[in-house]
Each structure stands twice: as C-alpha cells, then as structure tokens.
Amino acid sequence: MTKLTQLTITDALKGLENKNFTAQELTQAHIDAMQSAKKLNAFITETPEIALKQAKASDDRRAKGNAGLLDGIPLAIKDLFCTKNVQTTAASKILEGFKPEYESTVTKNLFSNGAIMLGKTNLDEFAMGSSNTTSYFGNVISPWKRDGDDTDLVPGGSSGGSAAAVSAHIAMGATGTDTGGSIRQPASFTGIVGMKPTYGRCSRWGVIAFASSLDTPGAFARTVEDTALLLESMAGYDPMDSTSANKEVPQYSKSLNGDIKGMKIGIPDEYRIDGMPDEIIKLWEQGIEWIKDAGAKAVRISLPHTKYALPAYYIIAPAEASSNLARYDGVRYGYRANENDLQDMYAKTRAEGFGEEVKRRIMMGTYVLSAGYYDAYYRKAQRVRRLILEDFEKAYEKCDAILTPTTPSAAFAIGENEDDPIKMYLNDVFTVTGNLAGLPGISIPSGIDKDGLPLGLQITGRAWDEETVLKIAGTIEKAAQFKCMPK
Questions:
Q1: Domain residue ranges of the chain, discontinuous segments joined by +
Q2: How far apart are CA 190 and CA 154, in angstroms?
C-alpha cells in the first residue's frame, strides 16, 4: 500500500487540484495495488488500459480547468453495471463473454464526472447471496482476518468484490447494488461506508436486474464524505428508467456539517432479536450515546411488522427474479448449450448456465407466481410490504431517522453457514425492511468485535432525505473514530 492508495477521495481531489500528483500516477498506484491483491479475487475483469487512458484524459481536462466532480478518481464497478464494450457477467456462466453495446446510466454519470474505471468487481451470481460465495468466478475473500486466525472470511454480499476492493485500498470507491442489504451488509463486514439511496434516486437502466422493485444502485467508500460525493455524481433523473424519480439531486457533500442538535432518532424495539451477540447490542447502545452527546434525542419507536420482512422479501424477490431471468434462454446472448432440439437447448442452457442459488430462487419465485399460489403468497407478501412502509411512515411522525445495527454479527468464515440457506438469509434481517419500503440507508463502521472484526451501525431515513441520513452518519463517524485496517 502506497501513500496514494491511503488517500480518501476528498484528499485525492485536493492533491490533484494542487498538482501534488497526477491522475495517471494515482491510477497506476491503484493498478499496482490490484496486482498485489489478486488473492482476494475482488475483480472479475480488470481494465488497466482503459483506466490509464481515462486518467490521461483527466489530466488533460484538469490542465485546461475543466475538471469534473470526481475527475481522476479510480473506482471499481460492480459487474452488474453494463459497461460498453467491456465484459459484464453478473458473475454468472450464462453471461460470460457478454460485452454490452451500451453504458449504464450510473457509470455514464460517473465517467462524465471524470471517474476512472479500474475494472469490474466480483459479486454473488445475479446479486443473489449474502457472502459472495455464489459467483461462477469463485469466492471473494475479505481482506480482514480474525485475531490470531488465518481462516478466510467472507466480505459479505452480494457486492462483496466492491466492498473488498475499497476496504483493501485497491480502489478509492466503488459502485454496488442493494436489493436486500447488498451494500450495507458487506460495508459492515469490511469496515467501510456503504450507502443505499432512496429507490428511484439512482437509475437502474443498464443494471442487470435481480428484483426490479427492490434493486437500488449505491456507493461504497472509506468515509461518509467520500460516499456523499459518489452518490452526488451517480444520482439523477433518467427518462430511460420508468422508476427513476424526477427530483433534483442535492449537493450531498455540503450536508455534512455535523449539526444534529434537536433531531429525534428512532430506536425500534423489534430490532432486539433473540440470540443477537452482546457486542452488537453494546455497539448499538454506544451509538445511542453518541447521538445524544451530539445533541439529538433517542426516542423509542415500534416497527411491528418487521418480523414479517424476511418472509415477504423472500417471496417478492425470487418472484421478480424468476420473471427477470426468463430472458436467459441461450438464443439472444450469453451461454448456449449444444443441443439440436430447441426445448432441450433451453433447458440445458439454463441448467448449466445458472448456479445452484440462482436456480433455487428461480424455482421459489416460479412457485409463488404459479396458479393457485399467487394470491396465497405473492399478493399477501405485497400487502405485508405495504404494512412495513406504513410502519415507517408512522415512526417518522415521531423521529427524523432510525438507528439500528447493520448486521446481526461480524463476518463469518467462507463455508461456515452455507449448508443452511435460512441462516444465510438472516444476514439481511436488519436491512431488508429498508428495501421493501424503498428508503435510504447507510452503514458506518463503528467498532470491532472480540475477534478484531469490524461492526457497523445503520441509519435509515425518510424517502428522498439522504441529506439527513448522511448528516447523522457523519456525526457517528466522527464519534466512532474508526481507524482499524484490514490485516
């Protein structure tokens, strides 16, 4: 790790502006870091040639006084975002070799602001997982280790490659997607900041779909301020996406004034689940003290339908996945099985092209959408989803934002929970409610467990109020003073 790879995005932008180094030097330092950290398997596709070409163009723009918001900053792009003429796989065999003819709106926004692409990061296949162990291209390994133990740990999922890259200082920031916690959970596991904005704030156009009513593009960085800059660059109305909101994007980085005096922060009773480790509870209590010390008031709230969130999510998300993934049939693009009969080709392509977790969710989703079960499962889950949103709306009559743990535990070892899908699904118990309600949320690294692994606190806010979420997150970040580094 060099001095350049230790910089935050904010500090790097100042250094570039002051001509302390060039975008090409900054980018080369991160390319070198990528090469030295290949054992993490954080990237599916590395693009050093593209990165250096973009860096030279960035230096030219800066010399002419035309620098953008993120000009010269090397980022990692989750391999769910389509990138023109660069392989985009969703970490699946069925899309290996697919090179889109178009650019996703989020990456187009980032590149128009001068960001540099180091490569495409690994993920759980089609974003289905909480550990980044379902990828066709192999497991991502967390840069963190337990004290005195060399066992490989998961970085969380599905955006584990992005989280690992930022945590290991291979990239200064990264894109992710959050369908049930896939930004916030890996951010917590790897000791970085991860933000999911309000559904509709960032365009989904050009993002390979898992569950269309839940998928939300967002950002990873090592500080709240850096995350605010990334979100500001990514967000915006997009007529190509029918779920994109035609709302002005605030200058998020300007909202971090640290003043939360007089705010009311909700503490939900239902998030104290059975079996939660004492250190998670203690961290939560510490977070409550931090916001009180900053002049905010902690208020007790109730989100009574929280206990139904995971069951509802695991009906709605697979149902939408089964519909979205029907397009992968071996005819138009991607993997095709070698069969002469059309029906056999369809069946064999999907059987060989999809991994076990993806097939499991397709079958679950097809079942709940089938005749005779649609009303019993899918329609009922949608009603529960509405009740969960109403819980939040009532809670926000009493508070400005909600403080909870991000995850029920620290990172676990690769393979530790994989024989129990239900246990794996419980990793998202604190995050799925935010997706079902479409609300903004952020995870801030706030402490370490008994094994020296990072733990996060989560702020969930009102729809379209990312500014308050970021402001409170900045206050917690300042109080926590999290300086721990991966081993």
A1: 1-487
A2: 9
Catalytic residue among 58, 92, 131, 158: 158
- Does the pTM surpass 0.70? The reply is yes
Contact indicator for 456, 406 with CB cutoff of 8 Å: yes
Contact 433, 271 (CB under 8 A): no
**pLDDT tens digits, residue range 197-216?**
999 999 999 999 999 999 99
Return the pLDDT at 429: 87
Q: Which two tokens stand for residue 121?
A: 């990061």
Q: What confidence tier does 258 reach under pLDDT thresholds 50, 70, 90?
A: confident
pLDDT value at position 415? Answer: 84
CATH superfamily placement of domain 1-487: Amidase signature (AS) domain (3.90.1300.10)
In angstroms, what CA-CA distances link 306 with 128, 157, 456, 486?
22, 22, 20, 33
CB 384 within 8 A of CB 312: yes
- The candidate with the shortest Cα–Cα distance to 183, out of 135, 134, 216, is 216
Q: Are 403 and 458 in contact (CB under 8 A)?
A: yes
Catalytic residue selected from 58, 78, 108, 142: 78
Contact (Cβ atoms closer than 8 angstroms) between residue 188 and residue 130: no
Respond yes or no: is residue 78 known to be catalytic: yes
CA dihedral 163, 222, 188, 303 (to 10 degrees): -120
CA distances from 17 to 64, 68, 72 (A): 12, 11, 10
Q: Which of 162, 167, 182, 253 is catalytic?
A: 182
Bridge partners (DSSP) of residue 220 are: 174, 194
Q: How far apart are CA 179 and CA 361, in angstroms?
A: 14
